[in-house]
Amino acid sequence: MCLLVVVFLMTMAIADPEKPFWDGSWHLNLNDKRPPDTDLFAELNNGPIRVVRLTNNALVEYYGNVEIGTPPQTFTVVFDTGSGVLWVPSYKCTKCGDRHKFDYADSSTFVKLEANEEMEYGGGHVTGDLVMDTVTVAGNLTVPYQKFMAVTDISKKMIDTDFDGVMGMATAGADTTSTSPPWWEAFFSQKTMSPIFSIYISAFEGDPGAISFGGSVDLFRQSKITWHDTGASYPRFWTSSLTAVTVESVSSDPCSGSRCEFMLDSGTSVILLPSDLISDWSAIQVESDCSNKDSLPAVTFQIGTTEYTLNGTNYVIDQGGSCMMGIQKYPGCSQLTACSDGCCAILGQVFIRSYYAIYNASSGTQGHIGLALANQSALRTA
Q1: Which of 346, 348, 345 is nearest to 317 (CA)?
Q2: DSSP state letter for 134
Q3: Are the C-beta atoms of residues 79 and 64 closer than 8 Å to each other?
């Protein structure tokens, strides 16, 4: 099973047009005109790295565009580092809501392969046809003859989302559907650019995020990158070893060795932890009206010898004064295991908002995960 967990919340947008902004240098004069983020993304794509804008929906969904077919049909997808399959709705799907649907007849390069494939996620499942066509991401990363799922049914748990589909950025599930992720094909088969991608997601409602192919973008970080070897469950999942979790100076001792893992998962809205990793869960609970958000204790994740700390304002999901916890118990899990065994720690979007995530697939068997303090002013639009 692959992990894709989206938390559904009501959206209350907040905008302050008088805040200073950063576009490579600080603009502190309130009369300065903030450039449209479309212009900034055009500038970011002038170099060898290709950057895709991610729409930020209520701090729990981040998705960008992918093109499929000839001529191309455009879909919005979650770039999910917790799974390995690309899927979009098929024109045959009658219960896919308002999603864009892939029409086979409109593509001259379409090939149908098999029917009745299924993909399981932590938040539901999809079924459909295994097909093949040209897939393009980031403008010029084009993979011909790419296998993917044209989905004919989406489970109820996954219907109420604003994105069309999912592009897996690991390899989990690819073995069961006889596919490989488009990014993997582009990096290793075509060798068009460095086998690195990076994910930046905004902590402010409405502000976009970005996924970058071919490297990392200095604008999105404000510290050096610390690299960690991938764990035992790589490349099925993007994992590394978790050393300890600390709340108010009380540390867990998860276990020792490479089988105690966390997954750096861009497809999960929150942080999910086996219950034994925090001794007093009540200490980090936020009131629904956010009244205690600023007084919550810091939570520190130790990866190797490096500590990554989130304070209450970092790990609480605050939507205009309505708050929920961004660190939650992983259902059915008490002790930490390897991700391939089902009960690892999931460091999802709540963590990635604070720490810019870089994924280096330098070889098929050993990769590296890079983390740097995120520059949360990088793509401010308000």
Answers
A1: 348
A2: E
A3: yes
Query: Rounded to whole angstroms, how far apart are CA atoms 35 and 79?
Result: 26
d(CA 345, CA 2): 14
| Beta-strand pair 111-121/239-241 | unpaired
Bridge partner residues of 250 (DSSP): 247
Alpha helix (H) residue ranges in the chain: 37-44, 156-159, 182-184, 312-315, 349-354
* Among candidate residues 137, 130, 131, the one with its CA nearest the CA of residue 72: 137
- Do the beta carbons of residue 380 and residue 19 sit within 8 Å? yes
- What gap in Å lies between CA 234 and CA 365, rounded to an integer? 7
Task: Give the tokens for residue 280.
Answer: 């007093």
pTM for the model: 0.88
- Please check whether residue 103 is in contact with residue 136, taking contact to mean a CB–CB distance below 8 angstroms: no
Q: Write down the pLDDT at residue 242.
A: 92
CB contact set of 42 (below 8 Å; sequence gap of 6+):
none
Residue 73 CA from chain centroid, whole number? 23
User: In this structure, what token pair is assigned to residue 40?
Assistant: 């900034």
pLDDT digits (tens, 9 = 90+) for 343-372: 999 999 999 999 999 999 876 667 899 999
Residue 254: helix, strand or coil by DSSP? coil
Among the listed residues 221, 223, 218, 224, the one whose alpha carbon sits nearest the alpha carbon of residue 47: 218
Q: By C-alpha distance, which of 97, 380, 360 is closest to 235?
A: 360
Q: How many CB atoms lie within 10 A of CB 332?
A: 9
What is the spatial distance between Cα 380 and Cα 382, in angstroms, rounded to a whole number?
6
Cβ neighbour number for residue 118 with a 10 Å cutoff? 14
Q: pLDDT by residue (tens digit) across 220-253?
A: 999 999 999 999 888 889 999 999 999 988 888 7
Alpha-carbon distance of 104 to 128, in angstroms, equals 13
Instruction: Indicate the DSSP class of residue 90.
Output: B
CA distance 267 to 166: 9
Helix/strand/coil for 106: helix
- Residue 168 identity: G
CB atoms within 10 A of CB 70: 15
